[in-house]
Write a structure and sequence with these properties.
CATH superfamily of the largest domain: Type I PLP-dependent aspartate aminotransferase-like (Major domain)
Number of domains: 2
Distance between the termini: 23 Å
Radius of gyration: 22 Å
Order of helices and strands: HHEHHEHEHEHEHEHEEHHHHHEEHEEEH
Largest sheet: 7 strands, mixed
Number of helices: 16
Structural class: alpha/beta
CATH class of the largest domain: Alpha Beta
CATH architecture of the largest domain: 3-Layer(aba) Sandwich
Length: 425
């Protein structure tokens, strides 16, 4: 049985000699984004624990927590409070766009990856005879979203297998599997950037290039759209949307980006193919309603669900983007992957541990999954917690023990986790 701890826990560790120390920064010291101890000090995490589940429902760093408090207190004092500078939602879109290397009008605001995927797959219109391609490895949010799409449209959904042994996954085989699975009327290709089941990183750019070739000569209404669940890459990896080459990217911002809980985005470059599902509170929607008509062409803003949100969280999203940008996207990726490499090397040396995550950095990110001989993952998680190492269980069948390396972990914590796993007998 999956429980809340399994769904909310996670762990991933790696590191090399280039990683800096875990020595805590002095309390009250100014934030130095170039110093990993100072970065870690911005979080309120209990220092007694080696935290490899921070990416699931992430803790927010000090600037984000302060922004949330500021907006919350202002709303409590005046329910009609609006942050200075005009439209706060537009400020969020602009911050997300800068981080992704995109335009603000291509960003829809959501509450989570699941909501983003739901809006996408519920809003996409398919013509008779068009079909959908996905993989066996995707999370429930994608599979269920596509099931509902198929129920609504009658479209056939096909799944391909990208690898048999995730530890031996290859980019060529993954791309080939997608190409072989394409049909002449495939309208949607639904993939996950980094698999939460195994830690395998899909070569999204190479898939996008293959789809571009397949789309040559197709009618625009039959072009295969590449839709990506990006949540375990977004914030952990440095790629922007131009690097990925996909048509849509959905991600929560309360995971590897360490943004406010209950926030997320969908970036897209083909919003005309997606109909709004929930009424928008955009100016265009209100103007059309008050005028007795309908808004014009579909846009990211029209797809953004209306209603009153936990605005103190949404309006604090720019601070999360700014925090990660100050550290440097490339530095965050290097740190995450160096720690993951260190963890994988340590776990691979343990006779009773079997790694499920590829060693190659280009085929993985910050997730490291493994199994312990003779022990169920839930038992391993509980015993590790007793040693003050926080890991998680993957919510798949079969389940695996999972770690997540990130900016809140360091090499000493990685080594501590390896020793704790080695003691699991």
């Amino acid at each position: 049985m999956l429980n809340r701890r399994a769904l909310l826990g996670a762990g991933l560790l790696t590191g090399v000699a280039a990683c800096t120390s875990d020595t805590p920064a002095p309390k009250g010291a100014a934030f130095d984004p170039a110093d990993w101890a100072s970065v870690r000090a911005q979080f309120a995490l209990d220092p007694a624990y080696a935290q490899f589940a921070a990416f699931v429902l992430a803790p927010a760093p000090a600037p984000v927590r302060q922004a949330i408090r500021t907006h919350r207190d202002a709303l409590d004092a005046d329910p009609e409070y609006t942050p200075p500078g005009g439209s706060p939602d537009q400020a969020v879109r602009e911050a997300a766009a800068r981080y992704l290397g995109a335009r603000a009008d291509t960003i829809a605001l959501t509450d989570s990856t699941t909501m983003g995927l739901g809006l996408l797959y519920s809003g996409l219109g398919l013509r008779p005879g068009q079909d959908v391609l996905t993989t066996e490895h995707d999370f429930m949010a994608t599979h269920e979203g596509l099931r509902l799409l198929a129920a609504r449209t009658g479209a056939k959904v096909r799944r391909v297998r990208l690898y048999d042994d995730p530890a031996r996954a290859s980019a060529d085989r993954m791309v080939s599997a997608i190409k072989e699975g394409l049909g002449p009327r495939t309208r949607v290709v639904a993939l996950t950037w980094v698999h939460s089941s195994t830690g395998v990183r899909v070569p999204v750019r190479a898939v996008a290039d293959a789809l571009a070739e397949a789309n040559r000569g197709r009618d625009e209404r039959d072009r295969a759209l590449l839709c990506v669940d990006g949540v375990h890459g977004f914030g952990a990896l440095a790629d922007g949307v131009a690097d990925l080459g996909c048509d849509f990217l959905a991600s929560g911002t309360h995971k590897w980006l360490f943004g406010p809980r209950g926030t997320g985005i969908v970036w897209g470059r083909a919003w005309d193919t997606v109909a709004p599902i929930v009424p928008s509170f955009s100016q265009a929607a209100f103007d059309a309603w008050q005028g007795g008509g309908a808004p014009g062409a579909n846009t990211a803003e029209l797809v953004t669900p209306g209603g009153y949100k936990a605005f103190e969280h949404r309006w604090a999203m720019p601070q999360a983007f700014a925090f990660m940008t100050a550290i440097g996207k490339d530095r965050v990726q290097r740190r995450t992957q160096e720690l993951a490499s260190r963890l994988k090397a340590g776990l691979a040396a343990i006779p009773h541990v079997r790694l499920a995550t590829p060693n190659a950095p280009e085929l993985s990110a910050g997730l490291v999954c493994c199994s312990v001989a003779g022990m169920e993952p839930f038992e391993a998680v509980e015993r590790l917690r007793g040693q003050k190492v926080v890991a998680s269980v993957t919510p798949y069948q079969p389940s695996l023990l999972r770690f997540g390396t990130s900016i809140v972990t360091g090499p000493e914590q990685v080594d501590r986790a390896v020793r704790a796993v080695e003691a699991l007998r």
